[in-house]
């Protein structure tokens, strides 16, 4: 009996969340993403109280995550931009000027879903201490200091994490922004990956 009442209450709650999320979704992917985050914390809290699986709530959450995925772009914004720039460079100056004249000056906003690695701050700290303000690529001093006075260097992975590289002191190096960018975009750069 108690169980039946509880199940009923959960279904009511799930329906209420559904109405609320449908409403929020009208405002776009950004607000929906924030609301889903809140909703998930709420589900976790409820579960800690009831010790139940709260399936109806999860079902509603899953449903709106799917909706959000459809509303958002996947990881490709930067790549698309680079391809579009190459295309723009190839069109004539007149064509480009014409497009610029009628272009929207307030760019459209998109929400990007991406998968990132949670990097170990100790690896970053250790590599920065090892470099001691000197780029491990070109041997020059860091180009400027951060607002907190530390020399500005970026910690890069010799073998990319996405390619299975380790998030370790041995696989990382501290680089000035130029050396770092070259490693990601340069034509002449070969590899720092250990053979
Ligand atoms: Zn450098
Ligand atoms: Zn890098």
From TrEMBL:
Residues 123-181 form the HNH nuclease domain. It comes from the Bacteria. The keyword Nuclease applies. One of its GO terms (molecular function) is nucleic acid binding. InterPro entries: HNH, HNH_nuc. Pfam families: HNH. Keywords: Endonuclease, Hydrolase, Nuclease. This is HNH endonuclease.
